[in-house]
Design a protein that fits this description.
Blueprint: E1 5-7, H1 16-31, E2 39-42, H2 44-52, H3 59-76, E3 89-94, E4 106-109, H4 113-123, H5 126-145, H6 149-162, H7 173-191, H8 199-213, H9 217-226, E5 235-240, E6 251-256, E7 268-273, H10 279-282, E8 288-289, H11 292-296, H12 298-315, E9 319-326, E10 329-337, H13 342-354, H14 360-366, E11 379-380, H15 382-386, E12 390-393, E13 395-398, E14 401-407, H16 410-418, E15 423-427, H17 435-440, E16 443-446, H18 454-462, E17 465-468, E18 474-476, E19 481-483, E20 489-491, E21 495-499, E22 504-507, E23 512-513, H19 520-531, E24 535-539, H20 543-551, E25 556-561, H21 562-566, H22 572-580, H23 584-609, E26 613-617, H24 623-626, H25 631-641, H26 645-655, H27 667-672, H28 674-693, E27 700-704, H29 710-731, E28 738-743, H30 746-750, H31 752-755, E29 761-764, H32 766-774, H33 778-790, H34 804-821, E30 826-829, H35 837-845, E31 850-853, H36 858-869
Parallel strand pairs: 14-15, 15-16, 16-17, 24-25, 24-31, 25-26, 26-27, 27-28, 28-29, 29-30, 30-31
Antiparallel strand pairs: 1-2, 2-5, 3-4, 3-5, 6-7, 6-9, 7-8, 9-10, 11-23, 12-22, 13-17, 14-21, 18-19, 19-20, 21-22
Helix pairs in contact: 4-5, 5-7, 5-8, 6-7, 13-14, 13-19, 14-19, 19-36, 22-23, 23-28, 25-26, 28-29, 35-36
Bound molecules: adenosine-5'-diphosphate (ADP) and magnesium ion (2 copies).
Catalytic activity: pyruvate + phosphate + ATP = phosphoenolpyruvate + AMP + diphosphate + H(+)
Family: Belongs to the PEP-utilizing enzyme family.
Enzyme class: transferase
């Protein structure tokens, strides 16, 4: 017989795949002697059995559940379904990977009319008994039958209003009985059935609901955002209830063993007295900071501190712990690695090394590359901030600054973001349905909820600015307005600026500046640099980008796109003249002007490089992008070139291409007009000479784009070498330089051994290589790739993460064949993929020399290269 159900004592933290993260950790905590209410786990195997078995919970599994239920009765001395001494349980989902808020939990299961009465008699505390029952009806109705929770909340508010109560805790036992009747009515109206009184039936339905929730749309979106495999399934935890809603010596809370925003070594969290379950995160009442527990229940507080220390040392990571206090006794209900900001991730990892808990290598593996974006995020411009007007402040829930237009609905936020608007999502509180809207917004602002509210936790995970619990603002989601304390109103589309590090909210737009990095970040990056094998270069065309990249740790330029230098407003008329010139003479006279401009560009880059490699790609213009479009531009050009407008138009027509992407670009242009590349090679070498004479060493790499055959390269190389040698003769000196090629056409991969006879280096242009291998145009693919993901035809965007089986195999072939000709051929990557951690791992395995990426991704690439070198793939699960 297969085993589907496990006692907590039968599991361990290493059984996440089978028992889910929550269950595995409940098991681990039970086994190290922490006060965990007893229970058992229905494994993910059971979930898969249910899903593959046409959503049928097999009798075999349910029988096994019953066996464990009777063990639980023995352990607790209570009886499931009894009227006198009822055993109540929580039914808690738990996937192998932490999915906060994605799956739903039902508390107080086992209650029915008579058990609630029995419990009230037994404990002499009718209020708590009925409070538990009304919570159960609501949660069960919500989770199992999807009855919208606002229906229950309305009934609750009605009773509170009628009695002039502010807080739920003011409800008396009689009020609660009335509420229970109202809830039962809501339930039967929504489902057409009475609220189920049979506890076993309640349990069966709840288990099924957890299994079903694995496939609910929120969970599906979350898994897609976080690359979690859908076939894992979720486990179900059945656990004896403890009660935080039994008066002022009871309560419930959440604590982190370190500050998850800053990483500082201090216990951080919140709790609520006389509360149950998710009251803390639901933002109904404002929770108290954990430090206040010291005053209220010093013994419990000390035990909690000890528990934090014990768990952190046991797991050797910062923990996020859920606890409940029942009549002065502490119970631990969950522990997991705490979600944290990038800043906190780095600080805790580095501190753990200094505290001797983990090695440097472990620290490197622990920081999620994707998260680093956060650190490189903008802050407000100090001078701009001086004029900023603070209109309110809330809790600094997730750091970073943001400015944008306010939207009140997740859906509208998504639509606005699609129109290119910088969005700030404004809600009273967020819920899992808002995930996509949150993902597409620049920042999140809520009026309710604390530092551990849904909005705060999710925003931190996403590395987004968030201000939570800003109670000074009155947010009306229906009317789409924010009312300030002054009575002033803000409407959809108005601008706000948020500082997630201070909690301040400013009216209007405030200019942002780049984030500063240093301290712990530099220390960790230093360790990463020591571990990595790949060099990290930057794709930069301007001195500003290059300088920024050097601050981020770039080791040279891997791609300088010279056509980007041509886009400059002052230059474009000359570029147009160059393209439209009808004779060599005409073209050469414009080229002389362009050459001087290019020399200024290149010498500046060489100076900044201070001897580091600078790879310059010769012109690869999509011609149509440069041609004049408006009448005014055409007239201007006609005037500059001494032509008539019709003459210019005719020439433009002659140059029009059916498919510019596959057209007269790259080296093909230089085959027709070699003078263009000759000019660029001259500009490069002449600036190299100038900078060399200034005492700075220079070693330019000249890169020829879009090579398909060796003979193209031979021809162009000969032209270029001629001008370079002329410069050397004239200057009576020689400088080192390399001429190589971009490998971006499948044919070049296949004939890489031949091409290597002419090339001193290869640089894989994986963007074009992906386009040409798939035959997808990158600009058009966005229109249909969404369907590919939806229909599971493609798992990932091949322009983001290298398609190992196809494009990657071509790269590998080129590497192997290139090395057949030159064992030590210098090879790198300069496509988007050069900054993508998964792709970097692949390039590391191929033993390339470097990857090159945009400035902001340089630190990510450094860390990813180190993680690749250290071997094991990082586990998202640990964070
Ligand atoms: P989530 O995965 O959303 O965190 P949990 O299963 O952890 O959901 O349940 C949410 C909350 O419900 C817990 O933090 C805890 O406060 C409460 N809870 C769960 N099980 C029990 C229990 N056996 N006794 C008391 N409270 C419980
Ligand atoms: Mg939840
Ligand atoms: Mg929990």
């Amino acid at each position: 017989m297969r085993k589907f159900v496990y006692q907590f004592s039968e599991g361990s933290k290493d059984m996440k795949n089978l028992l889910g993260g929550k269950g595995a950790n409940l098991a681990e905590m039970t086994n190290i002697g922490l006060p965990v209410p007893p229970g058992f786990i229905i494994s993910t195997d059971a979930c898969n059995d249910y899903t593959t078995g046409n959503k049928h919970l097999s009798e075999e599994i349910f029988e096994e559940v019953k066996i464990h239920l009777s063990k639980l009765e023995t352990q607790t001395g209570k009886v499931f379904g009894s009227t006198e001494n009822p055993l109540l349980v929580s039914v808690r989902s738990g996937a192998p990977f932490s999915m906060p808020g994605m799956m739903d939990t039902v508390l107080n299961l086992g209650l029915n009319d008579s058990a609630a009465r029995g419990l009230a008699d037994l404990t002499g505390d009718a209020r708590s008994a009925y409070d538990s029952y009304r919570r159960f009806i609501q949660m069960f109705g919500d989770v199992v039958f999807e009855i919208p929770s606002y229906q229950f909340e309305q009934a609750l508010s009605r009773i509170k209003k009628a009695n002039n109560y502010l807080l739920d805790t003011e409800l008396t036992a009689d009020d609660l009985t009335e509420l229970i009747d109202a809830y039962k009515l809501i339930f039967s109206q929504a489902t057409g059935n009475d609220f189920p009184q049979n506890p076993l039936e309640q349990l069966r339905l709840a288990i099924i609901a957890v299994f079903d929730s694995w496939m609910n749309p929120r969970a599906v979106i979350y898994r897609r955002l976080h690359d979690i495999d859908a076939s894992l399934g979720t486990a179900v935890n059945i656990q004896a209830m403890v009660f935080g809603n039994t008066g002022e010596s009871s309560g419930t809370g959440i604590t982190f063993t370190r500050n998850p925003s800053t990483g500082e070594k201090e216990v951080f969290g919140e709790f609520l007295l006389n509360a149950q379950g998710e009251d803390v995160v639901a933002g109904i009442r404002t929770p108290e900071p954990i430090s206040a527990l010291q005053m209220r229940m010093p013994m419990v507080y000390n035990e909690l501190l000890k528990t934090c220390e014990l768990l952190e040392n046991h797991y050797l990571d910062m923990q996020d712990i859920e606890f409940t206090i029942e009549k002065g006794k502490l119970y631990v209900l969950q522990t997991r690695s705490g979600k944290r900001t990038a800043k906190a991730a780095i600080q805790t990892a580095v501190d753990f090394v200094h505290e001797g808990k983990i090695t440097r290598e472990e620290a490197i593996m622990r920081v999620e590359t994707k998260q680093l974006h956060q650190l490189l995020h903008p802050a407000f411009h100090e001078s701009a901030l001086k004029n900023g007007h603070v209109i309110a402040s809330g809790l600094p829930a997730s750091p970073g600054a943001a400015t944008g237009q306010i939207y009140f609905e997740a859906k509208e936020a998504v639509q606005a973001a699609e129109r290119g608007i910088s969005v700030i999502l404004v809600r009273n509180e967020t819920s899992p349905e808002d995930i996509e809207g949150m993902a597409r917004s620049n920042a999140i602002l809520t009026a309710h909820g604390g530092m551990t509210s849904h909005a705060a936790v999710v925003a931190r995970g996403m590395g987004k600015c968030c201000i939570a619990g800003c109670s000074e603002l009155t947010i009306n989601e229906k009317e789409k307005t924010i009312t300030l304390k002054t009575g002033e109103k803000l409407y959809e589309g108005d601008y706000l600026s948020l500082d997630g590090s201070s909690g301040n909210i400013y009216l209007g737009e405030i200019a942002l500046t780049e984030a500063s990095i240093g301290g712990h970040f530099d220390e960790l990056m230093g360790w990463a640099d020591a571990a990595k094998k790949l060099m990290i270069r930057v794709n930069a065309d301007t001195p500003t980008d290059f300088k920024k990249a050097l601050l981020f740790g770039a080791e040279g330029i891997g791609l300088c796109r010279t056509e980007h230098m041509f886009f400059d407003e002052k230059r474009i008329p000359y570029v147009r003249q160059m393209i439209l010139a009808e004779s060599l003479k005409e073209r050469e006279s414009v080229l002389t002007i362009l050459k001087e401009m290019q020399k200024a560009d290149f010498s500046e880059l060489f100076r900044i490089a201070e001897g580091r490699s600078v790879n310059i790609r010769l012109l690869d213009p999509p011609l149509h992008e440069f041609l004049p479009k408006t009448d005014h531009e055409i007239e201007q050009l006609a005037q500059d070139m001494n032509r008539t407008v019709p003459q210019i138009r005719k020439r433009i027509e002659a140059l029009a291409e059916a498919n510019p992407m596959l057209g007269h670009r790259g080296c093909r242009l230089a085959i027709t007009f070699p003078e263009i590349y000759r000019m660029q090679a001259e500009a490069i070498m002449e600036s190299a000479v100038i900078v060399h004479d200034e005492g700075i060493s220079v070693h330019p790499e000249i890169m020829i784009p879009l090579i398909a055959t060796k003979s193209e390269l031979s021809y162009i190389k000969k032209e270029i070498k001629q001008v370079i040698h002329a410069i050397f003769d004239r200057e009576r000196m020689v400088l080192p330089y390399d001429i190589g090629t971009m490998i971006e056409i499948p044919r070049a991969c296949v004939t890489a051994d031949e091409i290597a006879e002419e090339a001193q280096f290869f640089s894989f242009g994986t963007n074009d290589l992906t386009q040409l291998t798939y035959g997808f145009s990158r600009d058009d693919a966005t229109k249909f790739l969404a369907d590919y993901y939806e229909k599971d035809i493609l798992a990932k965007d091949p322009f983001m993460t290298i398609d190992k089986a196809g494009v990657g195999a071509l790269v590998e072939m080129a590497v192997t064949r290139g090395r057949m000709t030159h064992e030590h051929l210098k090879m790198g990557v300069c496509g988007e993929h050069g900054g993508d951690p998964d792709s970097i791992q692949f390039f590391h395995q191929l033993g390339l020399t470097y990857v090159s990426c945009s400035p902001y991704r340089v630190p990510i690439a450094r860390l990813a290269a180190a993680q690749a070198a250290l071997g094991t793939k990082q586990l998202v699960a640990t964070l």
